[in-house]
Design brief:
By secondary structure, the chain is mainly α. Helix content is 53%, strand content 2%. A two-stranded antiparallel sheet has the order 1-2. A hairpin with a 3-residue loop joins β1 (108-109) and β2. α1 crosses α5 and α5 (132-149) packs antiparallel against α6. The longest helix has 23 residues, at 13-35. The protein is globular.
Length: 192
């Protein structure tokens, strides 16, 4: 549960909501990947990679909203298909996301030293996925923010492919998720 003081100001709440919606979609994509037969790993792996890239862009745009909420889902997906070539783009996206996260969290807090982030448990599987239309609206609003502010300088250590992340580049990342606008089914045992 977030304390009221931990919530972003109302004018930036859509950034937090977008980050959470992306992570919920990512958790679902990773669960689908873990359950997929070897021959069908391509689409869920591509969706998960696109969602990781989108999460990296949101992290650069809005800062951290919470810790990494899908470590178990990622481990399960990777363990289910240890040698699947379709996972290569996902592995790149995961590594790049880790570099972005370290770069964003690297700044020190005056008087306290480095910021420490404790690992978090996985997000629970949501009984009702975030509707694709709501996710699209949230991401459009984030893209509009970037258009108004312009791209921020990239923190040291971030992958160059996120350099000059402005409105158009963010919109392209968001559009990469659009072909997967039908949410995968919830993992077995999840109430509907």
């Amino acid at each position: 549960m977030l304390l009221h003081s931990a919530l972003p100001p109302a004018r930036h709440r859509h950034r937090h909501d977008a980050a959470l919606a992306v992570w919920q979609s990512l958790a679902r994509a990773l669960h689908e990947l873990a359950a997929a037969p070897e021959a069908e790993t391509g689409p869920p792996a591509a969706r998960a990679a696109a969602l990781y890239d989108l999460s990296s862009a949101l992290l650069l745009h809005a800062g951290p909203a919470f810790g990494e909420p899908v470590p178990g889902a990622l481990r399960a997906a990777l363990a289910s298909h240890p040698a699947a070539p379709a996972l290569d783009p996902l592995l790149r996206a995961v590594k790049d996301h880790a570099r972005v996260r370290v770069a964003v969290l690297r700044p020190t807090v005056p008087g306290l030293g480095r910021v420490r982030v404790r690992p978090e448990a996985d997000l629970p599987a949501e009984p009702r996925p975030v509707p694709p239309a709501r996710l699209a609206r949230l991401l459009r609003r984030c893209a509009d923010d970037l258009g108004a502010r312009g791209p921020a300088p990239l923190p040291p250590g971030c992958p160059d492919r996120f350099a000059r992340l402005g409105r158009d580049a963010f919109a392209r990342l968001a559009a990469a998720v659009a072909p997967y606008d039908e949410e995968p089914p919830a993992p077995e045992g999840t109430p509907t």
